[in-house]
Amino acid sequence: MRGLAFILIFCSTGLFAQQTNDWLASLENPPFSSEKLVAHNKLAYYVKHDLSSILMPSSEVLGYIGNGYQRIHVNFESVERSKSLSNLYFIKGKTVVSGNKCDFEGTVTIEQFREFKHMSYGLDSMYSTAGIKAQGVAIGSYKFSENPNQKHVGVFQGVMTLWWYLDKNGEIQFFDIDKHSDRFKNNQYVGTWSEYGKENTRVCNWGEFRIPFSGDLDWGAGGFSVNPKYYSKGWEAFDKY
């Protein structure tokens, strides 16, 4: 559990600490052997790689805020790596909840690069001859602050997880090798939103393809699918599926 002990230094505290702890524990003790991580944190080795392009979502971001699974749209507009700190990334974007639009900016700080013990080569091992050198996850902390001059604004913070692989040329890529899998996900954000000046903290999670801890919101077997009882919470577009 050495890796878990390392990343607990940026766990949230208070009401939603358990969610963060559960997420980190699930990374350390995954239900599938193909997702088991090597204990050693190889941040020093992999931090040379620029994650800007794969931190930028390439598909629709799915997210919710609050216990009622109200939909939140999270749109990254730019991702820029710090020129002085190789593990620090500056993020700018917008959020939309129930028609309320807000600008935000903040940072993602990569705390760990962990490799998988066993590599995956996709459906029918279609990538077995692709020369893939390594696969794993990057784990970090994030803090995004919304524009205080706008309405209903606050701070998002928590833990992010990015799945990656190293291609035959030694370049880091967005992990989509198992995109055929029912449980496929990437760019997962587990955390909270706290309104400025108030003791109003809500769980707020988002990601590509799936959402962490989405409970009975997502009842899809082969992909993300919304439980009809939540359509009125901003998920109306999924009524057609």
Question: What this model shows, in words?
Answer:
- By secondary structure, this protein is mainly beta.
- The protein has four helices and ten strands.
- It is globular.
- The termini are far apart.
Q: Please write the string of helix (H) and strand (E) elements.
A: HHHHEEEEEEEEEE
- Strand segment tally: 10
Largest sheet: 10 strands, antiparallel
How many helical stretches? 4
Q: Overall mean pLDDT score?
A: 90
User: Which percent bin holds the helix content?
Assistant: 10-25%
Low-confidence stretches: 1-12
Cα-based radius of gyration, to the nearest Å: 18 Å
What brief labels describe this structure?
241 residues, mainly beta, 4 helices, 11% helix, disordered N terminus
Could you give the topology of this structure?
Blueprint: H1 2-7, H2 17-28, H3 43-46, H4 52-55, E1 61-65, E2 70-71, E3 73-81, E4 88-97, E5 100-115, E6 134-146, E7 154-166, E8 172-174, E9 186-195, E10 201-208
Antiparallel strand pairs: 1-2, 1-10, 3-4, 4-5, 5-6, 6-7, 7-8, 7-9, 9-10
Condensed summary:
The protein is mainly β and 241 residues long. It is 11% helix and 37% strand.
